[in-house]
Amino acid sequence: MSVKVKKISEPLVLGEGPHWDESQQALFFVDILDCCLHKYIPATGEWTKAKIDGDKVGFVVPVEGSKTQFIVGVEKTFKIIEWDGKANVTKDVKVLGSVDQDVDATRINDGKADPRGRIFAGTMGQDDPQGVIAEGQGSFYRLDNDGNIKKLCSGIGISNGLAWNIQEKAMYYTDSLEHKIRKYDYNIDTGDISNMKYIFDFKKAGVEGAPDGTTIDTDGNLWIAVFNGSCVIKIDPRTGTLLQKVPIPALQVTSVIFGGPNYDVLFVTSANINVEGKQQPPSAGCTFMVTGLGVKGLPGYNFRLK
Asked: In this predicted model, what pLDDT tens digit does every residue of 40-50 receive, in sequence order?
């Protein structure tokens, strides 16, 4: 099969955080700067969106056992919202907690649920001017099933790129400003991470752009969105080898997730942020679906709250 890239949404400002929901056979994702939640059903082509109360939303993950409740990271707060997938606004249900209370200019950027339904998410410095991020202002957190929040590390520039390999007891994570991919030893029972090491260096590999969102396939290889790189790359995290580069018709590629009935479709989000000196293609900010890759991904995890 040949690789095909198809546009599935109108241009967003900052599309991010794609999550494939198996029960609804639908893709959920956010527009960070527009503070909106989006839903796309590939079988019908139906696409809906709703406004979330707040300034910026960093991620969305469904709540286990519900088709209408989601956990989101809005500004510095984790909260549960309700959305029926059709209304143009969401409803706040419960605030679970906040982070970075001792830091002024940060926000939650990216987050995912781990295999036990805990939320891993981090923060980043605000871009001022547009496209310029202060280094080391963010932190990385874990929200446990009981609602407790634990800081895992600090000094983060842009928190991004989460994936887990249960068999290898590994968690992969990215601070985009490092231009590297981190690997941690991961304890599935406790959610603790340790022994960080870098397993891929963008600059050494000659990859232009910065690592953004990440997902993993059934072979244990990572698929990484490349911001300011117009592509998604596939790497082997065990050897640090660049295996494949998939061109995307958007400069600012932000995140990736496998989905579809067989998990053989790669959904890709992008941004259309006006940064001086960066020429944007016509489809900047659109969401895409990539087929013909010859690989399959793994089901995503939902948030479990006790």
From this structure: 999 999 999 99
Half-sphere exposure of 253 (CA within 13 A, CB side): 29
Strands 193-201 and 210-216: unpaired
135: helix, strand or coil: coil
Q: Which of 31, 100, 175, 212 is catalytic?
A: 212
Q: How far is CA 171 from the centre of its chain?
A: 14
> What b/e string do you get for 80-111 counting C-beta neighbours within 10 Å, with b at 16 or more?
bbebebeeeebeebeebeebbeeeeebbbbbb
Distance CA 90, CA 60 (A): 12
Cα–Cα distance measured from residue 127 to residue 41, given in angstroms and rounded to the nearest whole number: 33
The reply to whether 127 belongs to the active site is: no
> Alpha helices of 59-131 — where are they, by DSSP H?
none
CA–CA separation, 41 and 260 (whole Å) = 9
Amino acid at 232: V
Residue 162 identity (one-letter amino acid)? L
Inter-CA distances, 278 with 30, 56, 130, 160, 275, Å = 23, 23, 12, 22, 6
Query: pTM score > 0.85 for this model?
Result: yes
Q: Could you give the CA distance from residue 87 to residue 143 in angstroms, rounded to a whole number?
A: 28
